[in-house]
């Protein structure tokens, strides 16, 4: 009861701050920025096996010495 009687103003301010924070978080997460990466389906289908992975043969190192 003390929250609703003695601290009503502070309680309403805290509620307003939380509401603004929720709206800001939703708007930031829903915004479409140009940072996101995307690939066209035609480019994804046309990829060849040779373009994806390159195997490099290396000599082993001796740890003796």
List the helices and strands and how they pair.
Elements: H1 2-5, H2 8-30, H3 41-45, H4 49-52
Query: What does the largest sheet look like?
Result: none
Question: Given the C-alpha coordinates, what overall shape results?
Answer: elongated
Q: Mean pLDDT, nearest integer?
A: 83
First CA to last CA: what distance?
78 Å
Topology as a string of helices (H) and strands (E): HHHH
> What is the domain total for the residues?
1
Strand content bin: under 5%
- The number of helical elements comes to 4
What structural category characterises the helix and strand content?
Answer: mainly alpha
Low-confidence stretches: none
- Helix share bin: 55-70%
Could you tell me the number of beta strands? 0
**From the alpha-carbon coordinates, what is the Rg to the nearest angstrom?**
29 Å
Give a quick summary of the entry.
The protein is an all-alpha fold and 65 residues long.
């Amino acid at each position: 009861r003390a929250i609703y009687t003695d601290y009503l103003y502070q309680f309403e301010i805290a509620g307003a701050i939380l509401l603004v924070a929720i709206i800001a978080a939703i708007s930031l997460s829903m915004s479409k920025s140009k940072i996101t990466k995307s690939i066209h389906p035609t480019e994804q289908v046309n990829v060849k096996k040779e373009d994806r992975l390159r195997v490099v043969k290396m000599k082993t190192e001796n740890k003796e010495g």
